[in-house]
């Protein structure tokens, strides 16, 4: 994404007149909107057509800043808001920085971040999804449940890259309920390897249930566990991707089972790309075997603007908790879905 930098030089003189570090602040964002046709968009099986935000990339804006503290050490921050372009409202009403709100330190030993930030499964899967998390994407499978994607009260450590190998560990304190240290707690571990055209990553995470503040009922004793491995290989203008994930535990944020996906992207020209992706979720205990197929194309009008088109199909196969569009709040209730999206994306 292209971003425009607002540079604020900060030469701070000490008592003896010595200049200190320089700081930069960057404003960035993406505005994405389009039109969608979606079959079986309601429980009575009716189709819908209309305008919506974030078909290809969620619309958002943010600020990030960095200060050089010398000796290879730097401090930085990132705050980011998601919004709906077609209505102008925030994606999470009343939550201004609903995506990022973090501060961190980076040095030769790696980096450590504190605040609100995405969990490891989400952050480490973006580049292994050919759609890069469009509305028809791995998000449709609920591999990364929306309630656990952005974690408050979290701490993350990332190692430096050593000969292509890196890792990360993340812990979130959850709801921080007095007397209940498990409520909403998160633990994640990941490792990745990238060398030349090959990259591989492995992620494990577990999330504890939360406390319903209205009723006082606690599910903090229940745990959701997810493990995933994904790989990518690039040769020329073609990139091949595949992955596997296992969902287990008793919290049931999504059904227990095994998820598989395979995809490729191909740059036909420097400005025109196409993608294809297939996903299958083999759930246990009779909760279905939904299968998705997605086709997409992107045409770049400039380095900051592109137009796109997506076509997707969900063969429901008995599932009742998934849909084709990851942002569709209605459940198909055992019905399959077909969707088409066209739109435009502009970044700044």
TrEMBL record:
Membrane topology reported for the UniProt record: Multi-pass membrane protein
Subunit structure comment from the entry: Homotrimer.
InterPro entries assigned: Gram-neg_bact_OMP, Gram_neg_porin_domain, Porin_dom_sf, Porin_Neis
All residue ranges annotated as the Porin domain in the record: 17-316
GO cellular-component term (any): pore complex
Keywords: Cell outer membrane, Ion transport, Membrane, Porin, Signal, Transmembrane, Transmembrane beta strand, Transport
Gene Ontology annotations of biological process type: monoatomic ion transport
Molecular function per GO: porin activity
Signal sequence, renumbered to the chain: 1-21
Protein's recorded name: Porin
Subcellular location field: Cell outer membrane
